[in-house]
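Journal club prep — side note

Before the paper discussion, L.F. wants everyone to see what a predicted structure for a comparable chain looks like in token form. Sequence:
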Amino acid sequence: MITNETRSKILAQDVLICDKLWSSMRGLMFRKELQKNQGLLIDLHKDTNAGIHMFFVNFPIDVIWLNSEKLVVATAEDVKPFTLKNPKKFARYIIELPHGVLKAKPVSFGDRFTFGLD
């Protein structure tokens, strides 16, 4: 489960965790879609320049970048297939969610998150 503790909102109940190099690089590639209550959590194991690519991802997503303290450092809504996104801030965690989640459940810089790795 991925929860925005600051706003008491659950953003995803079914979470795929990518904490190995290959699974982090593959991410959502070649998948058909993310269901409404699904999310992908990438753990990079340290704060780093954490850009994403949407190569071979055939649907738009919303993305949240968190630092090591699980605080929001950047977000992106409606990230289109076959594009790149690179936030200006370093991040340890990347959360990929179905398109529209951030519109329905907005997050702000500094919101604190909890999830299955706690």
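L.F.'s comment for the group: The chain has two helices and ten strands. Keep this in mind when we get to the figures.
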